Amino acid sequence: MERVYIKDLEVSEEEVLLRGWVHKIRDFGHIAFIMLRDKSGIIQLVCEKEQIKGLRLENSIEVVGLVKENEKASKGIEVEVSSIEIVGKTYYDKLPFEVQSYKNKTGLETQLDHRTISLRIPKVKAIFKVQNEIEEAFKGYFKSHDFEQIHTPKIINSGTEGGSEMFTVNYFNRRAFLAQSPQFYKQMMVGAGFEKVFEIGYAYRAELHNTWRHLNEYVSLDVEMGFIKDESDLMDVEEDFLRYMFEHLKETCSEELKLYGVEVPEELKIPRIPLAEAQKMLLEKYGKKSPVGNIDHEGEALLHKYIKEKYNSDFVFLTEYPVSKRPMYTMEDEKKPGFTKSFDLIYKGLEITTGGQRIHDYEMLKERIVGAKMKLEDFAFYLDTFKYGMPPHGGFAIGLERITMKVLELSNIREAALFPRDIKRLTP
Ligand code: AMO
């Protein structure tokens, strides 16, 4: 007999074979109901007393039975069991926390300590369905717009984003680093003639922030494209992708979105505001001072409030960041010296993207590297590409866990990582 997934069950004269975990047991003495959970859903099993003998919550079982109609059961069907076999035993005194409840109140750290248990909670699992579909939309959108998927090295010899936030690796007795971003390599691939590329891969940040929005290992959705006019081309692409992504989520994740009580925007038109203008507004309207060349987290939250009221948008592009606040590869605006052709995208008060046009001229790039007090020889592999007709280009990156978190309005980024890595956590 071939195994059937719960989502595919239909009333039939023939018996079916189901596999899954014991989600709930309700024993009424003469009769018992079991909720069986598999990767696709949950179904009620109707059993006789002896059939549930020795059965415990979270045993994995194989069940044979008949699918019958029952108005009272969810989706109107249930399975009348003819046999149950335990295929995976349990060895616990007490489950670390309840898996059954949609309203699980267990603290996040405890859930993360027992991650393979918390992932069984349907509402927790739903986060990763949504995350999967965000990734699917990213792949689908960029592939259908002539971008090619690439995979670039994560063990590298030099930093890209500046700062000291790099993990060092002992690479056969040489010092190497874990990539903070595929930045150089995605640019090099534009130069290699691929023109338009995207990558889904891990990025590593050794930052000491143990906050609700930082991870030390996160998935970066990277895009880079050649022959652009300026950074507005990039914002157009990202905006169009987000429209596509929300459509895709509506089609594929309606139940999951409902579970979290969130709606995706019907229309998307993202305002673009120079950073200095946003800072001025924050000061005048809310008395909120911003650090030079940036907006802190409190400012981002206020900005969201303002943009929501004024434009009915959860998103805002901030543009015209000062040269001093951007990595050395960022293109300066020839019409506004001192400012770059770069942007951030803020979604519901959190930065989810940085992007911009890059320097594509070899001499100019060398000057910038030297100016940033970095060693030219460390970047020789990167600079080489720029000698052979590097076109004007640019790109952006979206943090996968951050966008997932904001779509579902989660309060901590760790909830959107299967096995998060932070300062304290290296297991599971
Ligand atoms: P940036 O450093 O701003 O830019 O990173 C891009 C996006 O990655 C996500 N992100 C993080 N998510 C979780 N934890 C972290 N510690 C973390 N750090 C970054 C955020 C952020 O907006 N090379 C450029 C991108 C480009 O210009 O193409 C870069 O990496 O969502």
UniProtKB/TrEMBL annotation:
Annotated ATP binding lies at R205, A206, E207, R213, H214, L215, E351, G399, L400, E401, R402
Residues in domain Aminoacyl-transfer RNA synthetases class-II family profile?
128-428
Q: What is its EC number?
A: 6.1.1.12
Any one annotated GO CC term: aminoacyl-tRNA synthetase multienzyme complex
Do you know which InterPro entries this protein is assigned to?
A: Aa-tRNA-synt_II (IPR004364), aa-tRNA-synth_II (IPR006195), aa-tRNA-synth_II/BPL/LPL (IPR045864), Asp-tRNA_synthase_2 (IPR004523), Asp/Asn-tRNA-synth_IIb (IPR002312), NA-bd_OB-fold (IPR012340), NA-bd_OB_tRNA (IPR004365)
Gene Ontology terms: biological process: aspartyl-tRNA aminoacylation
Residue sites binding L-aspartate per the record: E161, R205, T354, R358
Q: Which reaction does it catalyse?
A: tRNA(Asp) + L-aspartate + ATP = L-aspartyl-tRNA(Asp) + AMP + diphosphate
| The entry's keywords | Aminoacyl-tRNA synthetase, ATP-binding, Cytoplasm, Ligase, Nucleotide-binding, Protein biosynthesis
**Entry similarity comment:** Belongs to the class-II aminoacyl-tRNA synthetase family. Type 2 subfamily.
Protein purpose:
Catalyzes the attachment of L-aspartate to tRNA(Asp) in a two-step reaction: L-aspartate is first activated by ATP to form Asp-AMP and then transferred to the acceptor end of tRNA(Asp).
Q: What is this protein called?
A: Aspartate--tRNA ligase
**UniProt source species:** Clostridium bornimense
